[in-house]
Amino acid sequence: MGNPKAFLTVKRKEAGYRPVQERILDFGEVEQTLNTEDRREQAARCMDCGIPFCHWGCPLGNKMPEWQDYIYKGNWKLGADVLQQTNDFPEFTGRICPAPCEKSCVLSIHREPVTIRENEAAVMELAFNAGFIIPVPPKTRTGKKVAVIGSGPAGLAVANQLNHKGHEVTVYEKSANIGGLLRYGIPDFKLNKNIIERRVNLMLAEGVKFVTGVEVGKDIPGKELLEGNDAVCLAIGSQVPRDLKVEGRDLKGVYFAMEYLGQQNKLVGKEEVPADQIINARGKKVLVIGGGDTGSDCIGTANRQEAASILQIEILPKPEALENMENPWPNPYPVVLKTSSSHKEGCERRWSLNTKRFIGENGVLKAVELVEVAWSKDEKGNHVMSEIGKPEIIEFDLAFLALGFVHPIQEGLLAELGIQVDGRKNVATNGSRLTSTSKVFGAGDCVSGQSLVVKCIASGRETAAHINEFLTKE
Questions:
Q1: Is the distance from CB of 186 to CB of 89 less than 8 angstroms?
Q2: Res 2: pLDDT
Q3: How confident is the model over 408-427, as a mean pLDDT?
Q4: Which of 129, 156, 171 is the last residue of a domain?
């Protein structure tokens, strides 16, 4: 290590966010950046510990001590190269990953882990801006063809890996642009879509083909791809949102979170959205049901649309703040209270609340009935919810269901190809990620269920390795 004692003398320093009064006026990225010297100092804090728990915490197994040291020594190109050995898209994860590596960092014992995620984004931006990252198409082609259905992080990782192996890869995307939930689910204030375009253009220059606006299984038969390719990879995501089937669910004003977020991303990206379908929170009372990141994204979006008020509710109890609990290190996914940049822009948050019904007038949402709940366990150890207190009725104009996803769409492609699913209706695969249908593989959320972007990239890399083995064996 260039400075083995830096962790003792250099304090953790985060880049922070743009001022609230400025950032809520646009959809630009909210996170700021440190200058190069400060970033090098932060990288120097990596202590090259004997057991790097960050490797274990990261689903991709990124080599944190190595590339942190290269950053500190000013070798940004080598730092970016080492990072890309294990991660196809560090510029994505450096912005939106919840950083399980930092939760596992040995310095988390003192609650001041290395700023790994920020360092990751910084090294990639410098590498791109300095021209270190250029197209590197394969020198030879194998003659094998692969179709990847879905262009989210898993599908892009599969395509990137297999293309570098020399196979001819075509990615099919049903939406107008590439990226899946990276593009249509994550707001621009967290991930500017120019970052996706930059990577897609790089992959195009390296030989990957992209077909957009085509839904396989609907616009073209899945069997057509089976016949025209040596392997097919399903990376269609977990597209069916978890619903809330209570009275009044069909009222105008009650939407799935992704309807709202996807539409706003289209508007920012200058895509056409019919005027009568636009969901706008300006001057309205907004309820966000679901306490996770998607709910937080709805809050940030509603704030930028100048909502009159925003309440986010969660059915589970309020988690402990990290400073008030026994240190969970090295658990990469501790259950702690999270306050995002969107929360800091303004909203009310409440926990242990269940939604009883939506109340409307002339088919339009006017209020929501909520009730406080308590949690206990029965004799078998199962969690049991019970209502406490009296229900309350609160006026709302919009309600967004940010309750996650349950499984991929069963109709269409999966049914046509006769793909078997597991008990949770996810695509069933064997140890080699092969589905029940010959030469059809699965990757990402459609196999695992809803997960993190970093896990999807890891899944895509693993599936690509199995596909490559399958193709080269032939």
A1: no
A2: 66
A3: 97
A4: 129
Tell me, yes or no, whether 303 and 392 share the same domain: yes
Give the pair of three-digit tokens for residue 402: 């940010």
Find tokens 């000013």 and name the residue. Answer: 74
User: Distances in Å between the alpha carbon of 446 and those of 196, 224, 409, 455, 459?
Assistant: 21, 21, 9, 12, 11
433-466 burial by CB neighbour count: b if 16+ within 10 A, else e?
bbbebebbbbbbbbbbbbbbbbbbbbbbbbbbbb
Q: How many CA atoms lie within 13 A of 192 on its CB side?
A: 12
- DSSP 3-state of 339: coil
Rounded CA separation 158/227 (Å): 20
DSSP tag of 282: B
pLDDT digit string, tens, across residues 276-321? 999 999 999 999 999 999 999 999 999 999 999 999 999 999 999 9
pLDDT at 104 over 70: yes
Query: 371 and 270, same structural domain?
Result: yes
CA distance 321 to 334: 11
User: Which residue in 221, 211, 201, 146 sits closest to 172, CA to CA?
Assistant: 211
Q: Which residues pair with 365 in a beta bridge?
A: 360
The answer to the question of residue 134 being in a domain is no
